[in-house]
Amino acid sequence: MGLTVVNFFSFFTVLSNLGAALVLASIAWTSVQRPGTLTRTAGLALACVTTAMLVCAGRWRSTLSPAGRPGTRTRS
């Protein structure tokens, strides 16, 4: 069960990174072709990818922080 959960989150990380790269590349390409324009679809895609990246970052932060609590520090 534990390995399945790890595999799921690592797959989600890869997908969110690929999605971010594709969306940002397409927005960059569009802005080169037509400067100053951002379509509603591009804005929605950017919002979706940003949300996915924030969820992924929050999950990794809570997973990798000491005792599973974000923002806590341990004394050395």
Structure summarized in a few sentences:
This protein is an all-alpha fold and 76 residues long. It is built from two helices and no strands. Keywords: Membrane, Transmembrane, Transmembrane helix.
Shape: elongated
Q: What's the helix-strand series?
A: HH
* Major sheet details: none
Number of extended strands: 0
Strand content: under 5%
Q: What is the total number of structural domains?
A: 1
Mean pLDDT: 78
- Cα separation of the termini: 33 Å
Helix content: over 70%
Identify low-pLDDT runs.
none
- The secondary-structure class comes to mainly alpha
Instruction: Output the radius of gyration.
Output: 17 Å
Number of helices: 2
Search tags:
76 residues, mainly alpha, 2 helices, 75% helix, 0% strand
Task: Please explain how this structure is put together.
The protein is an all-alpha fold. The chain has one domain. 75% of the residues lie in helices and 0% in strands. The chain has 2 helices and no strands. The chain has helices at 2-33, 40-64. Helix 1 (2-33) packs antiparallel against helix 2 (40-64). The chain is elongated. The protein starts with a helix and ends in a 12-residue tail after the last helix. Keywords: Membrane, Transmembrane, Transmembrane helix. The chain crosses the membrane at residues 6-29, 41-60.
Q: SSE layout and pairings?
A:
Layout lengths: L1 H32 L6 H25 L12
